[in-house]
Amino acid sequence: MRKSYTERRNSTGIEGINLSNIDHSMAPETEIKEFRISVATWNVGGKAPNPDLNLEDFLQVEGCADIYVCGFQEIVPLNAGNVLVIEDNEPAARWLALISQALNKPLHDSTNYSSDSSHGSRGLNSNDNKDSKSHNLFHKPSLKVLENYRADSSLLKICNCQEESQTRDRQRERKLSDPIHKLDSAKETHRFRPYSSADSMLYMPDIPSFPSSLTDRTYNLIARKQMVGIFLSVWVRKELVPHIGHLRVDSVGRGIMGLLGNKGCISISMSLHQTSFCFVCSHLASGEKEGDELKRNADVAEILKSTQFPKICKHRPCRATERIVDHDRIIWLGDLNYRVALSYEETKVLLEDKDWDTLLEKDQLNMEREAGRVFEGFKEGRISFAPTYKYTQNSDSYAGENVKSKKKRRTPAWCDRILWRGDGIEQLSYIRGESRFSDHRPVCAVFAAEVEMRNRTNNRFMKGYSCAAAKLEFDNCISRRHSLYEF
Questions:
Q1: Domain count, the chain
Q2: How far apart are CA 68 and CA 42, in angstroms?
């Protein structure tokens, strides 16, 4: 006859079993942890950066985020040569160098990189001054050399679905039981491979890696992509690299003929632990004539429709979503080009009074979102800064303030924006930078994002059994399961 729960618990036959620990071991399979994401967007007006340009304010480095998403528009002039012939990737290399310099400043303060070697060699000379180091860094830089900013490709996984993680755990367990493979048990068995022509520029296996003394960076580049003037890169804290999976890239051209890359977007999809993220950097249709906002709405709709990330694993359900809107957390940044639906004269009066709230009531993006015509389900933080476009070069004056010709005037507007979608994400700050480098001001935001992680302590037989009679029976199981979690 079966005993009741109370009788079983009080039975001398199982005296010594710690039932509270068994209950504890049945904890949820996942836990939630919060990560900080810094996002920045800047239309740089077709200008290549100078070596002394400081991006620390642009990236909000002082806040020390876990992930940095850096989006640029017009890193090259949008002329026929760049749009129709071949992309100039030298400016992209310069921006990567400056981003790495800002994020990994202590390392760069004592390091001199020379990019004039065909083998990607780096020179080290602590006696060189800042000017000479910057000169070498910017002397004909190439993306092939600067690819060394990327994280170690062997640490990036194709898939980090729960089923795949369990498969890797079983593989490790089998290896641990085989004495021949014990020395190799700590190696990662699932390596990152290129899987789409869309991100072919992300992985270059023939490039020599940095010496060990130079690889200890705080942040590693995990993905980057250029489409004419649009350039997007994602950097993560080095400790997070092994937990990044499902890394994919896609781009959509919406420029000339509705196809070319002078306008459009780049999207990067990834998962961190068990949560999927999508970062979209776009440059939408320009123009401040009445009705131009509809072109921008159409660009957004086409981007959402046409962006499709390649399939990379067969697990069901799989975290590797194929569409933008299917991701758990989405952040959309860029020069969205929405204007203020007021005359130049009306806008100027409100600008002088710094009446941002009244101006924002006539902001086209706000009006189109409220009408349900674009960015359905997306949110934007409160804007408490001046319009970011259009400034006179190297000036704090808006273009048109000192000219008589109405053709040269541009009504100031908040063209540069950052929006997000999804639960478990909160915007902590939303500001603009004050660099005079471009006719746009950069815009930055910091987010707190919840990430779902597998709870590796959830194991029924890890601890809690002190009964001498049961000890031998469970010895093999305990030893095998303990070894599984030791590294």
A1: 2
A2: 14
